[in-house]
Amino acid sequence: MHIAFLTPEYPHPKILHSAGIGTSIRNLVVELAKQHLTVTVFVYSQDSNEVFQENGIVIHKIAYKKYRILSWYHYRKQIQNYINNVVKATKIDVIEAPDWTGITAFMKFDCPLLIRLHGTDAYFCHLEGRKQKLKNYFFEKRALKSANYITSVSAFTAQETKKIFNIKTTIKVIHNGIDLNLFENTKDTLSFGEGQEALASWGEDILYFGSIIRKKGILELAEIFNEVIKQKPTAKLTLLGKDVIDIVENKSTLMLFMSKLSSVAKQNVIHIPHVPYKEVEMHIAKTNVIVLPSFAEAFPMTWLEAMAMGKALVTSNIGWASELMIDGETGFMENPKNHIEYASKIIQLLENEDLNLLFGRNAKKHIEAGFSQEIICGQNIEYFKSIIQVK
Questions:
Q1: Could you give the CA distance from residue 84 to residue 148 in angstroms, rounded to a whole number?
Q2: CATH number of 2-177+372-389
Q3: Exposed / middle / buried, residue 302 (Cβ in 10 Å: 0-12, 13-18, 19+)
Q4: Alpha helices in the chain (DSSP H)
């Protein structure tokens, strides 16, 4: 089989940028290559045209080109024609593209098109209760309606997307997976009764990692941390991620976050804007409690990464959460708007080391049992085979 991916992002030094979608695509691509499938990645809106290989994966950078009129249409046709030439030359069986802003609207490929739902702009606007740009809705709906197949990284995202766009066709759910070898906690905090060394390492460190943005509950986290500080005045909160201009107030989200903190809480917050991807693992490993109070996700890689490293989480309890978390076993789930209740769960995990470690062990086992990249890749391969058989 030869599977191709069309994406605006992919983790590689030669690629302009990458985030959660790029990470989830790369996780799958790498595992498909390990399973001896032929894999090609097309990355659009780049600064130059280039074709290169990495570990047997062929990557095409497609430079953005601005046209005098209707750039959105002509650039799509440029991408389409470029890919169809490669389809013909290398016998690509299936092309996968993400749903975000409907890049494949008005494209027609010479092989089946599969769209994977990571969360459309319409989906996130719906979850956040804000108005979407009409053009984005139009492109996303057109892309989804013209796709031959649709899959989704969570059942919740599939259900909501079907309602938003009035989709009648079946959507196959295949969750995101994670390479357990990349997120392995080497710090000795995963087993009980390990003596004074483990106890000595215990502290009151709390970590949030991800974009500093409203939809991920960061403004609620400020109020939550105020409540934590009232009972644990020495607790430390680290924010690891890029600051984003707030879509509502058009100001730095980090600035809005800091403005909500009490004077005491403000002294105990550290912001680290960016670290290399591999260093994220180090920050997760040395933290006692991970807090991820997001309002809008599809199936978040940050949750998978923290759980794979055997960390107890306090997350939101919205939609997709129950497809990954087990409340009271792998951590706690709570509505981020319930500041006092959310804070109390953080405090429980700071004060009760045995419970914290138990949740972390359960989280790691849960990921190993159902969300390892090997398991998820196998599900994808079977799905790709079913598409090719009816081609």
A1: 16
A2: 3.40.50.2000
A3: buried
A4: 20-34, 71-90, 121-128, 134-146, 155-165, 196-200, 218-231, 253-259, 263-266, 277-285, 301-308, 339-351, 353-370, 373-389
Per-domain residue ranges for the chain?
2-177+372-389, 196-370
Coil, strand, or helix at residue 60?
Answer: strand
35-75 pLDDT tens trace: 999 999 999 999 999 999 998 999 999 999 999 999 999 99
Task: Please provide the average confidence, as pLDDT, over all residues in the chain.
Answer: 92
CATH superfamily of 196-370: Glycogen Phosphorylase B; (3.40.50.2000)
Measured between alpha carbons, how far is 24 from 21 in angstroms, rounded to an integer?
Answer: 5
User: In this structure, are residues 104 and 148 in contact, taking their beta carbons and an 8 Å threshold?
Assistant: no
What type of residue is 178? I
CB 357 within 8 A of CB 190: yes
At 67, the amino acid letter reads Y
**Residue 46, Cβ neighbours under 10 Å: how many?**
19
Alpha carbons 335 and 316: distance in angstroms, whole number: 5
Q: What tokens does 85 get?
A: 């030439």
Question: Buried b vs exposed e over 324-345: b needs ≥16 C-beta within 10 Å?
Answer: bbeeeebbbbbebeebeebbbb
Q: What whole-number distance in Å separates Cα of residue 140 and Cα of residue 100?
A: 7
Helix H or strand E encompassing 239:
strand 236-240
Q: What is the pLDDT of residues 164-222, one digit of tens each?
A: 999 999 999 999 999 888 877 655 444 333 333 333 344 679 999 999 999 999 999 99
Q: Which two tokens stand for residue 241?
A: 């991620």
**Pick from 152, 169, 196, 157: which is nearest to 379 by CA?**
152
Written as six digits, the tokens of 49 are 């045209």
Angstrom distance (rounded) from CA 160 to CA 103: 20
